[in-house]
Write a structure and sequence with these properties.
single chain, alpha/beta, 2-enoyl-CoA Hydratase, Chain A, domain 1, 7-stranded mixed sheet, 11 helices, 10 strands
């Protein structure tokens, strides 16, 4: 077993079964990730892609939680000047945003078109970037009680994430609902839509994900690589035209918002009250009682 990003990403290979397992190991923060963690994950994925003896990569999170996406404790830290430094200004320039967002979306674009079979073991929470990776995986096993969504749209704006992928995988109605409200939903409520490969009881997620990984790993490796490129071509022609540019472009523009009086400004609220209280006030602001 090897690790990166201070042990917050672990990597191991089962040579006999041709399966690599990558584990997000930041359980005290529900496996949210910063840029360093994401880069560690990307490096391990590159290793898998280059290893002829691996057919499947299983992506999971430590402690029964898949991932809550980018760490909002460091929302603008992603746009630092390098080496983890905070940006000089409280609001990064558009040129800085576009440079950083392009790199971020390159990661998701590469994961979406990854040349090996990707299996996601999704328990607990899959929010933000975690939700995107769960949807992008070839095979996703999800616990019925797993909480899914893009809650960051409530303070970063609805033009967030891989928009083409959301509309293609979720359909335009559900995609609009989740992006325009920031709602978090239980996976069980989506089971009838067939969004994921399998939705099961929480205690079965690990075993079922491993089952699907072993099943896919029995396929001929060359056939898998050829099929993945064919799948990618079909999806590009049907659904993802312009996705590589549109997603990071709209993310950079769409997250540079001006907030009117009465609208919730997460960054300002966090600076005034701290992250924990900012999340509480966010939920309070967006709560609308059911009729």
């Amino acid at each position: 077993m090897t690790s990166a990003a201070d042990g917050r990403v672990r990597y191991e290979v089962d040579d006999d079964r041709r399966i690599a397992t990558i584990t997000l190991n930041n359980p005290e923060r529900r496996n949210s990730y910063d840029a360093t963690m994401r880069d560690g994950l990307a490096r391990f994925l590159d290793e898998v892609a280059a290893d002829d003896d691996i057919t499947v990569v299983l992506l999971r999170g430590e402690g029964g939680v898949f991932s809550t996406g980018a760490d909002m404790n460091n929302a603008y830290g992603w746009y630092g000047e390098g080496n983890g430094a905070a940006p000089k200004k409280s609001r990064p320039s558009q040129r800085r945003r576009l440079t950083v967002d392009r790199k971020s979306f390159d990661f998701y674009h590469e994961f979406l078109g990854f040349p090996k079979v990707t299996v996601a073991e999704v328990g607990g929470f899959a929010l933000g970037g975690g939700f995107e990776m769960a949807l992008m995986a070839d095979i996703a096993v999800v616990g019925r009680d797993a909480r899914l969504g893009m809650p960051a749209t409530r303070f970063l704006g609805p033009a967030l994430g891989s928009l083409h992928m959301f509309f293609h995988r979720l359909g335009p109605v559900l995609a609009r609902r989740l992006l325009l409200t920031g709602d978090i939903v239980e996976a069980g409520t989506l089971e009838h839509l067939g969004v994921f490969t399998e939705t099961c009881e929480p205690g079965q997620v690990t075993a079922r994900a491993r089952y699907w990984a072993e099943k896919a790993a029995k396929m001929p490796a060359d056939g898998v690589v050829i099929a993945k490129e064919a799948f990618r071509l079909v999806e590009q022609s049907q659904a993802y035209q312009g996705e590589e540019v549109a997603s990071y472009l709209f993310h950079a523009f769409g997250t540079n918002l001006q907030f009117a009086e009465g609208e919730f400004n997460f960054v300002k609220t966090r600076a005034q009250h701290g992250t924990r209280e900012a999340f509480r006030l966010r939920d309070e602001h967006f709560h609308v009682p059911e009729p």
